[in-house]
Amino acid sequence: MHATRKLWTWLAVICALSFAVLGWVGSEIWLAAPPIPKQVVAADGATLYREGQVDQGQQAWLAAGGQQVGSVWGHGSYVAPDWSADWLHREALALREIWAKREHGAAFDTLSKPVQAALNARLQEELRRNTYDKASGTIVLSNDRAAAVREVARHYRGLFGADPALDGLREQYAMGNGVLTDPAELDALPAFVFWSAWAAATDRPGQPGLSYTSNWPHEPLVGNRPRAEVGIWSIASVVLMIGAIAAMIWFHATHKEEDDPAPPKADPLFNLKATPSMRATRKYFFVVIGLILAQVGMGVVTAHYAVEGHSFFGIPLADILPFSVSRTIHTQFAVLWIATAWLATGLYIAPAISGHEPKFQKLGVDVLFYALLFIVVGSTASGWLGTLQHKGSAFAFWLGNQGLEFTSMGRVWQVLLFVGLLFWVTLLGRALWPALRKASESRGLIVMVFLSALCIGGFYATSLTWGRHSHYSMIEYWRWWLVHLWVEGFFEVFATAVIALLFTRLGLIRAAAANSAIVLETIVFLFGGILGTLHHLYFTGTPTFVIALGGMFSALEVVPLSMLGIEAYRNYQRSRSAAWVQTYKWPILCFIAVGFWNLVGAGLLGFAINTPIALYYMQGLNMTAAHGHAALFGVYGMLGIGLLLFCLRGLSERAAWADSLLKPMFWCLNIGLAMMVFISLAPAGLVQSVASITEGMWYARSPEVVHSPLMETLVWLRVPGDIVFAVGCLYLALFGWRLMRRPAQPAAVTTASAPTA
After folding, report:
1. Disulfide check for 754: which of 85, 275, 437, 548 has CB 3.0–4.6 Å away?
2. What's the longest Cα–Cα distance across the chain?
3. At 189, phi and psi to the nearest 5?
4. Is the dihedral angle over the CA atoms 566, 567, 569, 573 positive or is it negative?
5. For 547-553, what is the mean pLDDT?
6. What is d(CA 412, CA 402) in angstroms, rounded to the nearest whole number?
7. Phi, psi of 740 (to 5 degrees)
8. 19 and 533 in contact (C-beta within 8 Å)?
């Protein structure tokens, strides 16, 4: 007990210090972020962009799909270009061509090598010179550069407008015709994209050769190459990771884990009668299965748009389901169904753990269910209609699609979801309260479940921290608080604690050992995970020390994952420890799959792109998608399905259970995911990485690469894996349909209390 108290103290200290540093980094990002000019003018006095247009252009881009249609500074989708890299390359080519034709009377490509070299050197000097005047808030461009900017701006107005000459390019980008219809927004959008490219190439004040985005994207034309510190911190992070893994192996070797107890002769939960509130969670899990099917369906459509652009096997589906909408639903539903599975698990296990059914608990569970359903349906419908009807940036921010990956629902829906999560924490806390107050061997685990739930509810408030006019660097800072800390952080702590609690209730692990282990595991995970958030922010207009902090601490995130093979093997042994444990075979195998995908998807594929030098070349390419699919579904998705099966096991009549459906479900999901990642996504990412390293980020994301025969073949190679994966989803749906048609387990007689599990 004394050792456990010390671990809790260390956990509190590490969390406090880590969040203090993360908060300080945020203040430094605010101070060092690329300045937004009041106006951009040419040397002859002509105004290119007036005050407020960069901000208006940012809103217009987000309303047009934002990170669901291409990316800025590497964050977003992969079919359309990274607009920062695209603008930068187009502007450089246009300016170079202006000089070549005026001064040499010929196109640049026809000039001699010495002349080309001279113009290239002049180009770098021109685009890297910082002409921002802080006092007046003005960027002054040479007349030649202003002409190049106007030329690229015309291209962007036509692309996001309805220029018929660009129909083919829009199809390659999976963009609709007339994405922006407001002339003012069409004029403002190029201002934002210009600014993002200007910040990517212009030297920071007093730091020659270093842009505001630390020279991202790779663009040889303007001298954007990784600085020495990017490589140095990458090497240092690898060395630190190897040393930390060695230390963890030494720790495990010198601290022998206590053997698991002899399993009970019979299932300890066999006679557990679900209370009314526990039974009320049953509908949550059926909705989860429905959301999985919808998410997978949208994933199929979204992936196919990478080949046909506007059509689905010849059907002009994009007229009613644009790429930006299908991808939004695909990414948003992934988070929503996983979160719903975990929320329902908490509501199910709380009365079982405490033996207490609070008054009106069932009513609260029902109200929360319909509130969440309203939020999911409402946010999806309003985002879809807002996109189709071009409702504009104000509607997109408040009710429609904010255009931010994984956090796209409008602000009104975010507020409602935040209130719903706080209500969930309240329901969970009032059901757990007797167990939290009572001294027991498993109280530490129960406390961890409740604290992580409290963080899940509270930290969703980070989705409310940015506004319509927030600086893009700060939007990215707070967005990754939500995506990394909320989804990848506290949800994982919650789920790990719940699994440990379930195993102790089944008598398969000792509660005292689990108490210490879960706190120690949380310490190790959060020590790297909190500041590891910064690896998403290397090149988003942040100070260079973010590269050092993010690189080192994200390397530490891999350390606990390196031991998951051992834990997975021990869970496999537990699944065979007694005949009755076979009742929980498939939930336990899902937990084992979580360990595998944590190691492969989050560990190997994650670390493959997380070092600063790797991410410099790979950010925004399909290697990120390979890591995202393997980690999000492989880890959190399989965990959600495992918890779903565990809870439904206790909510269903034993005769209705169908292991014959769960076996193909499990293997199809895992094999299909592996095929999808390693036959299609990862090879496509490697092809793009070669293009990024040799030519530049603009080229890796250009139609020449994205729609090359090799890349389109790799997209088609997703089909076998997608089919296998979809079959697994159908088996899960059939399993759920079979349970839904059979009566649930009878409720406990009393609604005031239930027997302790």
Report:
1. 275
2. 92
3. -55, -45
4. positive
5. 96
6. 11
7. -65, -30
8. no
Nearest to 595 by CA among 512, 670, 484: 670
- Which of 294-315 are b and which e, b meaning 16 or more Cβ less than 10 Å from the residue's Cβ? bbbbbbbbbbbbbbbbbebeee
Q: What is the pTM of this model?
A: 0.94
652 strand-pairing partners: 744
Q: State yes or no: pLDDT of 708 exceeds 80.
A: yes
Does an H or E element contain 317, and which? none
Q: Please, are residues 739 and 645 in contact by the beta-carbon 8 Å criterion?
A: no
54: helix, strand or coil: helix
Write the pLDDT tens digit of every residue in 240-272.
999 999 998 898 888 777 777 888 888 888 788
CB distance 379 to 418 below 8 Å: no
Residue 757: pLDDT band (50, 70, 90) is: very low
Among 383, 388, 376, which residue's Cα sits nearest to residue 401? Answer: 383
Give the contacts of 147 (CB within 8 A, at least 6 positions apart).
94, 95, 98
* Whether the predicted pLDDT of 92 surpasses 80: yes
CA distance 249 to 271: 41
Q: Radius of gyration (Cα) for the chain, nearest Å?
A: 27
User: What is the β-pairing status of strands 207-211 and 132-133?
Assistant: unpaired
Vertex 456: Cα angle to 452 and 461 (nearest 5): 140
Which residue from 636, 737, 729, 640 is spatially nearest to 341, judged by alpha carbons? 640
273 Cβ contact partners less than 8 Å away, ≥ 6 residues apart:
745, 746, 747, 748, 749, 754, 755
Residue 68: both structure tokens together: 């669901």
Reference 185, options 396, 36, 392; nearest CA is: 392
Amino acid occupying residue 173: Y
Q: What is the pLDDT of residue 747?
A: 60
Helix, strand, coil % over all residues of the chain, rounded to 5: 75, 5, 25
State what percent of residues in the chain have pLDDT above 70.
97
Both tokens of residue 320?
Answer: 């009613």
**What is the per-residue pLDDT for 439?**
85
Classify 179 as helix, strand or coil.
Answer: coil
Cα distance between residue 563 and residue 591, in whole Å: 15
Report d(CA 205, CA 198) in Å as an integer: 14
CA dist 528 and 525 (Å) reads: 6
Structure token digits, residue 721: 């894996």
Q: Can you tell me the distance from the alpha carbon of 304 to that of 297, in angstroms, rounded to the nearest whole number?
A: 11
* C-alpha span between 215 and 223 (Å, rounded): 8
Q: Is 744 helix (H, G, I), strand (E, B) or coil?
A: strand
Q: What token pair was written down for 503?
A: 């195993």
Encoding tokens for residue 267?
A: 């299932």
Residues 6+ apart with CB under 8 A from 617: 218, 689, 692, 693, 697
Burial of 238 (0-12, 13-18, 19+ CB in 10 A): middle
Tokens matching residue 441: 């061997």
Contact partners, residue 549, CB within 8 Å, separation at least 6 = 21, 25, 531, 534
Length of the chain measured in residues: 757
Euclidean distance between CA atoms 348 and 644, whole angstroms: 10
Convert the pLDDT of each residue in 512-540 to its tens digit. 888 888 898 899 889 999 999 999 999 99
Which pairs with CB-CB distance under 8 Å and at least 24 residues apart come from 576-585? Answer: 577/260, 577/263, 577/508, 578/263, 578/264, 578/265, 580/264, 580/266, 580/267, 580/270, 581/263, 581/506, 581/508, 583/267, 583/649, 584/506, 584/646, 584/649, 585/659
Cβ atoms of 146 and 95 within 8 Å: the answer is no
